[in-house]
Design a protein that fits this description.
Layout: H1 2-14, H2 18-34, H3 38-65, H4 83-92, H5 96-99, E1 103-107, H6 114-127, E2 132-136, H7 137-149, H8 153-161, E3 165-169, H9 178-191, E4 196-201, H10 209-212, H11 215-226, E5 229-233, H12 240-248
Parallel strand pairs: 1-4, 1-5, 2-3, 3-4
Domain AAA+ ATPase: 100-232
Pfam family, one: IstB_IS21
GO biological process, one term: DNA replication
Length: 264
């Protein structure tokens, strides 16, 4: 029996079932104590292997995503949003927009939580088994330009097409020249109705000509991004940094932070 158990462990490792290999003796003991059937014994082994495989995949996707680890829904201040925005975001958490290759655009002033919402949605998607890539728009444009100079732009875009949800942070801060605009437009056009894009921006759509320069290109880009999309209008949300700064400078009821009273 010991030789058979060692042989079984070796075969499981050869079949690339490491969790089953490492737990087979433990589960066999449990099966003996609890009078599990052969089917129950096999089910428990397979369940542990599947759970471990899922966890390894999540960890791999998370490492590849470049997502900010701290920006999840657990650390998000929901109370700062309107009921309508909260409902929109809750619906997005299902991940259905990625399944249908729809886009999400979070629009609002700096500091309102656009990037936090985008990153938190990215974390949710990874838990559901979707691939995600988080990047600033400026960094991605430079990556595409480098690929173009090396005559491998189609290959680079094809590589990005493998990502289920591409998160472009701060598209409004990028002031592209024509060459930069062209590679960004090419990427958005390739992903149109094929893969999802999640964009954060401080520019309303009528101001996107600052990014794409040419009016016709701007219109075409906005049309592709907005079609089949969910718009998170965060214009009415107060800046988190402004709120925090005000709270830091507001004297408390106990007088902490206020000027000290003069000595008698």
């Amino acid at each position: 029996m010991p030789n058979r158990q060692e042989e079984l462990t070796a075969m499981l490792r050869e079949l690339r079932l490491p969790t089953m290999a490492s737990t087979v003796a433990q589960i066999a003991l449990k099966a003996s104590k609890e009078n599990l059937t052969h089917e129950g014994f096999l089910y428990e082994l397979a369940r542990l292997e599947c759970e471990a495989r899922t966890q390894r995949r999540i960890e791999r996707y998370l490492a590849q995503s470049k997502l900010p680890r701290e920006k999840t829904f657990r650390t998000f201040q929901w109370e700062r949003l309107s009921a309508g925005l909260r409902l929109q975001i809750e619906r997005l958490r299902s991940g259905a927009f990625v399944t249908h290759a729809h886009n999400v655009i979070a629009v609002g002033a700096p500091g309102v939580g656009k990037s936090h919402v985008a990153a938190a949605l990215g974390h949710e998607l990874i838990q559901q088994g979707h691939t995600v890539l988080w990047t600033s728009t400026a960094a991605l444009v430079q990556r595409l330009l480098a690929a173009k100079r090396e005559l491998r732009l189609p290959q680079e875009i094809a590589k990005l097409q493998q990502v289920a949800c591409l998160i472009l942070d701060d598209i409004g801060y990028v002031q592209q020249d024509r060459e930069e605009m062209e590679v960004l437009f090419t990427l958005l056009a390739e992903r149109y109705e094929q893969r999802s894009v999640l964009i954060t921006t401080n520019l309303v759509f009528s101001a996107w000509d600052r990014i794409f320069k040419d009016p016709m290109t701007t219109l075409a880009a906005v049309d592709r991004v907005v079609h089949h999309s969910v718009i998170l209008d965060m214009a009415g949300v107060e800046s988190f940094r402004a709120t925090q700064a005000r709270d830091d400078h507001t004297p408390s009821e106990t007088g902490v932070g206020a000027a000290a009273a003069p000595m008698p």
